[in-house]
Amino acid sequence: MNEYDTHTIQSELVAGGHELAAHPADADLLLLNTCAVRGKPVEKVVSVLGDLRKQRSEGRDVTVGLMGCLAQLEEGREVAQKFGVDLLVGPGAITDLLEALEEYGSLRSGERGGMIERLGFGPELHDYQPPPPRGLSGFLTIMRGCNHHCTYCIVPDTRGPEVSRAPESVLREAAAMRAAGVAEVTLLGQNVNSYGMGQPGMPSFPELLRAVADLGFERVKFTTSHPMNFTSELIDVIATHPNVCNYIHLPMQSGSDRVLRRMAREYRIERYLAIVREIREKVAEVVISTDVIVGFPGETEEDFQATLAAAETAAFEQAYMFMYSARPGTPSYKHFTDMPREVKVERLQRLIEAQKARSLAANEALVGKTLRVLVKDLGRDSRYAVGHSDQNHTVLVPAESVSSMGVKDVTITGATPHALYGEAVGAAPHGIELVMAS
Ligand code: SAH
Ligand code: SF4
Questions:
Q1: Does the residue 129 lie in any domain?
Q2: Could you tell me if 218 and 89 lie in one domain?
Q3: β-strand 163-164 against 143-144: which pairing, if any?
Q4: Residue 227: what pLDDT?
Q5: Whose CA is nearest to atom 10 of ligand 1?
Q6: 229-246 pLDDT, tens per residue?
Q7: How far is the CA of 247 from the centre of ligand 2 (A)?
């Protein structure tokens, strides 16, 4: 989502007559598009801003803007003030950036004082300057914000309530991407499957997905799905549209009902596993990935065991696993006590070990099979060209055996927990030894 926002910011700037610098060191305007979902990315921003403050104190003339989720938070404003940031522009105000820059420019000569701020969210998703498609795959935002209130999560504060983009606007951008040669489109939102809800006259997500798929992309992906509203109708659209990719990211967060309740996730683990079962029954060769948080306040060893067990039952092929990060302003930060870091680290390691074994077994089962792979990077500087299968596996193919990007049939010859190695069908056998990384 941030990558898409960054491209949108760039295209707004270019439309406003600015030019993109080849390197940050050449720029006279530096905009940091930030993430605030966990503490780590915030620490990174602080370190970059510290660096910039030093450069400015040594005479570099550069305007600095803080954008993205951190900009929207009190925590972000404090950081921005501390480091002398010039512009503070939230993720709901990207379309106000040019105007903010103009205001800043007009002040520059004279009484420049405080920061120029553009925060908050308009009532609707503006028809902004869509980023020009780059390469074979592209992102497409279909909605903004989140109406859930998971107790650990800062997103409702940074991105505001859910607003879905008008279907005509989504389809117009999708058609332009298709016409520009984009083969793979990823529909983006915090909870794409609640697309259109609460806005009269809007199509449902399955309907929108069908309409985008009918534009003829090689592949249509979407992220993120919330288990609420992950309906049988949606599963049927995935199952019956060959170009809707058979990869589903479905955050579980925890396998313990007690923890799910404290997280204010609106489903219980039985319901979650029932969705996974239905997906596996209906969608051929599907890959399911998930998000899990370990060490949520009050999580007992028994709760954690329930998470390990649920992950095993769901047989996730991939997972993004996080230690709970207490985010100022969230309900869990205010009301619960963080647990010792060692406990979180230890649980995370156990979960990662279990997942690695599952991912490796799932990937090894593909050795000898032929997958459709969209090669997006020819690996000019490395030994491997890189692509993704319809199930979102990362697939590496010897660079000298592929001469063009696009969809190739690839026979899988090796596997690690995170990637597959393969040979393009019809390519001459290569003489490179297989590297087994883990
Ligand atoms: N809207 C999506 C996810 C958005 S954030 C959803 O609900 O599924 C992406 C992931 O970051 C979440 O799924 C969660 O696993 C993780 N996350 C969010 N807040 C976190 C926190 N405070 N600490 C650790 N992980 C967090
Ligand atoms: Fe955060 Fe929960 Fe909304 Fe996802 S559904 S963005 S985790 S509040």
A1: no
A2: no
A3: antiparallel
A4: 96
A5: 291
A6: 999 999 999 999 999 999
A7: 20
